[in-house]
Specification:
The structure holds two protein chains of two kinds. Chain A is α/β, with parallel strands linked by helices. Chain A folds into two domains: 7-192 and 291-383, Alpha/Beta hydrolase fold, catalytic domain (Rossmann fold); 193-290, Rna Polymerase Sigma Factor, Chain: A (Orthogonal Bundle). Chain A is 34% helix and 13% strand. Chain A contains ten helices and ten strands. Chain A has helices at 7-14, 133-147, 160-171, 190-205, 222-236, 239-245, 265-280, 283-295, 330-342, 366-383; strands spanning 17-21, 27-28, 34-35, 38-45, 55-59, 97-101, 154-158, 178-182, 316-322, 346-352. In chain A, helix 9 links the parallel strand 9 (316-322) and strand 10. The longest helix of chain A has 18 residues, at 366-383. In chain A, 52% of the residues are buried. Chain B is α/β, with parallel strands linked by helices. Chain B has a single domain (7-200), classed as 3-Layer(aba) Sandwich (Rossmann fold), CATH 3.40.50.150. Chain B has helices at 7-15, 31-40, 51-59, 69-72, 96-106, 120-129, 153-163, 184-190; strands at 21-25, 43-48, 63-66, 81-87, 107-115, 165-173, 179-180, 193-200. In chain B, strand 4 (81-87), helix 5 (96-106) and strand 5 form a beta-alpha-beta unit. Chain B is globular and about 50 Å long. Classes of the chains: A alpha/beta, B alpha/beta. The A-B interface holds A 316, 318, 334, 337-339, 341-344, 346-351, 353, 367, 370-371, 373-375, 377-379, 381 and B 43, 45, 51, 54-55, 57-67, 72, 75-77, 80.
Chain lengths: 389, 201
């Protein structure tokens, strides 16, 4: 299963660590399939301390990966959370052992539809079993077992990463000392599913997609994936942010072109977002990861009562949302807060004022940094972690 | 870690036994929470309406959510806390009676402090000034005050009677924030604010 990596995967694996797990004990997926062996690619920053109390797991969102705080091996761009992770930053590798695992089903080295099915030696493509947020988290937990890390000082993530944080806290409460789900929800709403479906349909409507077997045909459903990315990208931004950034400004011209080129800057921007995404993301992976988000329903998995997911939880929670995020609006975070209150869990919640939409959690938001820093300081004091090394 | 907090907060803190669980509703910048956490080892949680207040609290390591007394107490289970504290906030709630009920459901005890609208200065300003009173504990103009349900100490006692709520302690403070010891009738004139500890009968 380790042969025939894509170029992007080869570059990714050359720059990070990986483990092959599940040879003896396969991963029981929610769909009923036993997956094994499977590979998890991950990156770490900092050093695990002697008593193994300083591990922080960062859960990455849909379109990011394990390269949190370094130049990306494929795109050459800086790490997606470098504003937060690095020397002197809130998550300082001098203090914490920071891990980020490429999620199952993704395309940066962990097993997903790009991999080969062990039984047949053929690429899985659409025959890869549908994975869930729960499966991703169980694979991460298996990696921690493999690394000998008993529990995590903190699990932190935004958007789909936040969903994983919630899943971690619900499934492994004793392994999660503190949890920071940012800009997320305990389930995917109808509107969120709808946007994802548009993206998936765009991919599947691309004639180059070939029923998911495009690698066999040596084609790339680039246009479909680009449109999917363009649609999704709109949902990550607020109306104000789009308006402020582009307004009705024209792209490289002084007058309307009376045609269908990218007359407007916003069109050119979206086209650029779409076309660069294709270089680093696999179309089938996109189908699988968006599906995993759609299937996420933490209350549904606990008898319809969200509080049941957190009963007796010893975890300290800190939730954050952003005022202009309409993809995962504040009310979704508040629902989680109420459930945590009902379960008598220790919870803090801050709504950060920002006009940057859902993407705010990836950007330089001093209020978010301050909150996170204070929360971690408080949690570290309770955990008995030494202050700045 | 500073020890000095507002006098009425200190009185509240003194009512809270060490190693208990407390919820401070309307916790502001978290002064009382920090005191209870640091000096009484209380598992103290907070709720605050203002964004600035919440952020300041969480940034200093306190467990605080953004929420308000009217809407967000419902989510907590029965008897989740030993104390639910509401300092200088009852008069700003939409439904003070319902808030008190919720406090006594969520907490085994409720501690409430509020400004006395029957303080002699208030009475003088109303009767002789003919204007809505502005005092040190009620500094707002009528059109910008958040205080929509002001009451006197006697009003509050009457409400407790109606609700069948037992008053375990009542401390009345004068305008210098010193406790005064007077019969209720006089306390309702000379008390500028009051702190009550309640429990359900």
């Amino acid at each position: 299963m380790l042969q025939d990596l894509t170029d992007a995967e080869q570059m990714a694996l050359a720059q990070c660590r990986h483990a092959v797990l599940g040879a003896e004990q396969p991963l029981s997926l929610d769909c009923g399939v036993d997956l094994g062996p499977y590979r998890v690619a991950y990156q770490t920053y900092g050093t695990l301390n002697a008593d193994k109390t300083n591990a922080i797991l960062i859960c990455h969102p849909l379109s990011c990966d394990q390269f949190v705080a370094e130049r990306h091996p494929v795109t050459g761009k800086e790490g997606w959370w470098e504003s937060l992770v690095g020397p002197g930053k809130v998550l300082d590798p001098a203090r914490y052992f920071i891990i980020c695992v490429n999620v199952l089903g993704h395309c940066m080295g962990s097993t997903g539809p790009l991999a080969r099915e062990p039984a047949t030696g053929q690429p899985w493509n659409l025959r890869f079993p549908v994975v869930t947020i729960g499966d991703m988290v169980r694979a991460q937990a298996a990696l921690l077992d493999h690394l000998g890390i008993p529990d995590l000082f903190c699990v932190i993530g935004g958007s789909m990463g936040g969903m994983q944080v919630l899943e971690w806290a619900a499934t492994y409460p004793d392994r999660v000392f503190s949890a920071v789900p940012i800009a997320c929800a305990a389930h995917h709403s109808a509107q969120n599913i709808a946007f994802h479906e548009v993206g998936r349909q765009a991919i599947m409507a691309d004639p180059e997609w070939k029923g998911g077997d495009y690698r066999l045909h040596q084609t790339v459903p680039a246009r479909g994936l680009a449109v999917a990315r363009m649609t999704a990208h709109i949902t990550y931004l607020s109306e104000q942010a789009l308006q402020r950034k582009f307004g009705r400004a024209l792209q490289d011209r002084n007058a309307l072109g009376f045609g269908f080129d990218a007359d407007f800057q916003v069109e050119s921007y979206l086209r650029h977002q779409g076309s660069t995404f294709v270089d680093r993301f696999d179309a089938n992976s996109y189908l699988y990861i968006t599906r995993a988000m759609d299937y996420f329903d933490l209350a549904g998995a606990h008898g319809g009562v969200l509080a049941n997911a957190f009963r007796g939880s010893p975890t300290r929670f800190c939730l954050m949302s952003f005022t202009s995020d309409w993809l995962f609006p504040t009310r979704e975070s508040r629902t989680i807060v109420h459930a945590l209150n009902a379960a008598a869990a220790n919870v803090s919640f801050v709504e950060v004022a920002s006009d940057k939409g859902h993407d705010a959690f990836l950007l330089d938001e001093p209020e978010m940094f301050r909150t996170l820093s204070g929360f971690l300081k408080g949690a570290a004091a309770v955990r008995g972690l030494k202050q700045a090394a | 870690m500073t020890a000095a907090i507002r006098v009425d907060l200190q009185l509240i803190a003194d009512m809270v036994k060490p190693d208990t669980r407390a919820l401070d509703v309307g916790c502001g910048d978290g002064a009382l929470l920090a005191y209870l956490t640091n000096f009484k080892r209380v598992d103290a949680r907070g709720m605050e309406l203002s964004q600035a207040g919440v952020n300041a609290c969480v940034a200093s390591g306190l467990s605080v959510i953004q929420g308000d007394a009217d809407a967000d107490l419902q989510a907590y289970p029965d008897a989740a806390f030993d104390y639910v504290i509401l300092s200088q906030t009852l008069q700003a709630t939409r439904e003070p009676r319902e808030v008190l009920l919720q406090m006594l459901r969520v907490g085994k005890r409720a501690i409430v402090s509020f400004p006395n609208f029957a303080h002699w200065q208030v009475r003088l300003r109303m009767v002789f000034g003919g204007r809505m009173p502005q005092t040190t504990s009620l500094p707002y103009k009528w059109y910008d005050t958040p205080n929509i349900h002001l009451c006197s100490i006697d009003d509050f006692r009457a409400l407790c009677r109606d609700m069948g709520v037992r008053i375990e302690r009542a401390i009345v403070l004068n305008s210098k924030s010193r406790p005064i010891h007077m019969p209720p009738l006089l306390a309702n004139v000379f008390g500028e604010q009051a702190v009550f500890m309640l429990r359900r009968d």
